[in-house]
Amino acid sequence: MHAVILAGGKGVRLRPYTTALPKPLVPIGDQHAILEIVLRQLSSAGFTGCTLAIGHLGEIIRAYVGDGSQWGMAVDYATEESPLGTMGPLLNLKDRLPEDFLVMNGDILTDLDYADVLRRHRASGGPLTIATYARKVHIDFGVLTTDASKVVAFTEKPSMDYRVSMGVYGLSRATLDGYTPGLPLGFDELVLDLLRAQNPPHAYEFDGYWLDIGRPDDYDRANAEFTSRKSLLLKGA
Q1: What region holds the Nucleotidyl transferase domain (predicted)?
Q2: Are 137 and 160 spatial neighbours (Cβ–Cβ below 8 Å)?
C-alpha cells in the first residue's frame, strides 16, 4: 500500500510555530513530530511506500525523514515549486503512483485505520473516498428564516450537525485523468467536478479521535492531550 502525504504548505495559521519549522515537523509531546507519528502509524498499518509532497522548508522535512527506512518504509519526494492546491501535487506524480492510494494532510492526529480507508475505497469502485467526521456547530444567535421580507421561522441558538472532511482520502489514479499537471487543483474543485459528472465520491464515516492541527489553539490542545492518548495514537507502532 502506498500513501501520499501533503506537506508543502506554509502553515500560516500556526505562526509563530511555523516561522522556522514546516508545520508537519512541529513537536507533539516530548519526543515526536506530527509527521513522525503519521509515518509510524502508516507503517504499522502495512503501508510500505510513501511520497512526501514538499514545498515550504521542504529541505528540512527531507533531512528529517530521509529515505523512510527508520520506519520500515520507502519514502520518496515530490517538490512543489509553487502552490498547487490539495490535489495539484498529485498530477505531477501520477505516473509514479499505484492504481489506488491514500492521500492525506501531514498535520493531523487521529487513530483512523488508514489501511481500512484504502481497502474500502478499492472495494467501492468509486473515484474518491473521503474520510468524514461529525461536527456540531453551535450558533450563538437567534436564527431567522425570511421570505419576501417577512420572518417565517425562528430558532433560538440552534446547533447544526455536519460531516466534514478529515483530510484523508482514498483515490484512484484514473480520477486525475483530464487535469493538467503543473496547474493548481483543489480538493473542492475535484469533488465538485465529480458531482457534476454524476460520479460521486464515497464517504468513510469515522467517530474516533481526530484533531486537525491548523491553529495555535489546536496545537496547544494536541500537546495537552497527547500524553493521555499516546497509546491510542501509536498502538502497535
Answers
A1: 3-227
A2: yes
Q: Are the beta carbons of 73 and 42 closer than 8 angstroms? A: yes
Under a CB-based contact definition with an 8 Å cutoff, are residues 77 and 29 in contact? no
Fold type of domain 2-133+163-233:
Spore Coat Polysaccharide Biosynthesis Protein SpsA; Chain A (3.90.550)
Whether the Cβ atoms of residue 105 and residue 167 lie closer than 8 Å to each other: yes
Three-point CA angle 237, 13, 230, nearest 5°:
20
* 12 band by pLDDT with thresholds 50, 70 and 90: low
Greater confidence (83 vs 154) lies with 154
What is the distance between the alpha carbons of residues 89 and 78, in angstroms, rounded to a whole number? 8
H-assigned helices in the chain: 34-44, 58-65, 88-91, 114-124, 187-196, 216-233
How much is the pLDDT for 14? 60
